[in-house]
Amino acid sequence: MQNWYLIKDTEKPGAYNMALDKYLADDPPDMPLLRIYYWDPPAVSLGYGQNLIEYNKNIFDILNIDIVYRPTGGRAVLHKNEITYSVIIPENSEYFKCGIHELYRIISEALLTGLTIVDKGFKIERNIKEENKYTNNVNCYDSIARFEIKLNGKKIVGSAQRRLKNGILQHGSILFENNQHLLKYLLIDKNDKLESLVEKFNAVRNVFNDGIDKKTIEEALITGFKRSIVKDFCEYKINESNMEVLREKEKEYLVYKSKKDLD
């Protein structure tokens, strides 16, 4: 095991989160890096190869939700109440030589070890085989890929991986709400009244038991990585001189900025 860098980030807009993940993967540090972050305001992210789906700007404004592209592939994800991780693997790391499924397995093992620490009677397990159940071309959580993590039989961690010249990026969402079904109202259904949509967004159920908050999961994930693949973590800070580059990259990933967020 070797040392890794760690970024414990605060709540940031989706375009910033995606730009930073891609920036770190394009020019990775000299050791692998784990970043844990959050979204404010909420956002819908689309896979970089996904066609832009029709949406009602008025709905996104009322619910204060942005739309962004991810630097990784896959289908749409609603980032409303979750903890998000990203792993950056530089080309000098032993993990850079791993195949796609093998690296998924290694990272999944660390995530599972962390989530098991806070398991209070839930059945948390890693999926063994591909389970494609897509009913449409929108929702990432309609399918469970190999090595993704389930809680009580339902997918709670959705991940995507992209290999670049100098590094590998894998990132994913750990859900705190059963909210991914709401995507169909945002991106497909145009007949619901806005009042009904707001009610739907406020009526979602939590995934974890009461008393398990995001900071508890955050610390458990860090412990899970240390028990599985990390010797120790070193704090990694973004150079302030690179912030201008990041602001330019944000423009590449922003599809729609909620007007409510601009009030």
Describe this structure in words.
It is a single chain. Helix content is 30%, strand content 27%. The chain has 263 residues and is of the alpha+beta class. It has one domain (2-257): BirA Bifunctional Protein, domain 2, CATH 3.30.930.10. Strand 8 (149-151) and strand 9 (154-163) form a beta hairpin.
Layout of secondary structure:
Blueprint (H helix, E strand, L loop, with lengths): L1 E11 L1 H13 L6 E7 L3 E4 L10 H7 L2 E4 L7 E3 L2 E9 L9 H18 L6 E3 L22 E3 L2 E10 L3 E9 L7 H5 L6 H9 L11 H15 L1 E6 L7 H11 E3 L7
Parallel strand pairs: 1-2, 1-11, 3-4
Antiparallel strand pairs: 2-6, 3-5, 4-12, 6-10, 7-8, 8-9, 9-10
Compact summary:
The protein is of the alpha+beta class. It has seven helices and twelve strands. The chain has a single domain, classed as 2-Layer Sandwich (BirA Bifunctional Protein, domain 2).
Characteristics:
27% strand; 8-stranded mixed beta sheet; alpha+beta; BirA Bifunctional Protein, domain 2
Give the CATH H-level superfamily: Bira Bifunctional Protein, Domain 2
Q: Number of DSSP helices?
A: 7
Report the sheet with the most strands, covering strand number, pairing sense and barrel closure: 8 strands, mixed
Provide the CATH top-level class. Alpha Beta
What is the general shape? globular
CATH topology: BirA Bifunctional Protein, domain 2
| Alpha-beta content class | alpha+beta
Strand order, main sheet: write it out.
7-8-9-10-6-2-1-11
Our estimate of the beta-strand percent is 25-35%
At CATH's second level, what is the architecture? 2-Layer Sandwich
Termini gap: 48 Å
Total individual domains: 1
- Computed Rg: 18 Å
The topology string of helices and strands comes to EHEEHEEEHEEEEHHHEHE
Mean of residue pLDDT?
A: 84
